[in-house]
Design a protein that fits this description.
187 residues, mainly beta, Lipocalin, 11 strands, 12% helix, disordered N terminus
Length: 187
């Protein structure tokens, strides 16, 4: 796994990761989202459902990225460890699988290292939530063609909870993974 100390402009002017990337737009986010992404360490629990693709390529990509297995409405626990070098996210899906990633910033983009995969996202505040727009993707340090994989991710607040939805698919709609759920990040 790539360590978060590999990021060169991590501090974003000394601000925590998400506030530093989003600047003044961070204040437009719901308090629940600001609590999770405000730059502190924390642990949140909730529920999640995961769908995995059945194709050979989906299975291979799932191994490269350490993606969770399929499960329906199962507990999730998310631990965020924040440091001056970025954030380390550890997600436990039920009692079966753990997905660990490191997040940092490079060139104004949020970079997430997940297994052998690195994804560079532009963060866009929309309707008091955040869209993660994929800009670049690489596996084992090798750039992947932008048209090969589509990743969509959004965080928002629904019914007072931090809601997340992430989907990754190959060109032509071949699903790699889709997971959606919520965390109790209330005060």
């Amino acid at each position: 796994m790539t360590e978060i100390t590999d990021f060169t402009d991590m501090a974003v002017g000394g601000a925590p990761l998400f506030p530093g990337i989003l600047g003044g737009d961070f204040a437009r986010l719901d308090a629940c989202i600001r609590r999770v992404h405000g730059g502190g360490s924390g642990r949140w629990r909730g529920r999640v459902s995961v769908e995995r693709g059945a194709s050979f390529m989906a299975k291979v990509m799932g191994l490269f990225a350490s993606l969770p297995g399929a499960t329906a409405d199962t507990p999730i626990e998310v631990d965020i460890e924040a440091s001056t070098h970025g954030e380390r996210w550890s997600r436990v899906f039920g009692d079966r699988s753990r997905m660990v990633s490191t997040l940092g910033v490079r060139g104004g983009l949020l970079v997430e290292h997940l297994g052998l995969v690195s994804a560079h996202f532009r963060l866009v505040v929309r309707d008091a939530g955040v869209d993660w727009v994929l800009e670049r993707l690489s596996a084992a340090g090798l750039p992947l063609p932008g048209h090969l994989i589509r990743i969509s991710a959004r965080v928002e607040v629904r019914e007072g909870r931090y809601h997340f939805a992430v989907a990754a698919a190959l060109r032509g709609g071949v699903r790699l993974v889709r997971y959606e759920g919520w965390l109790d990040a209330s005060a």
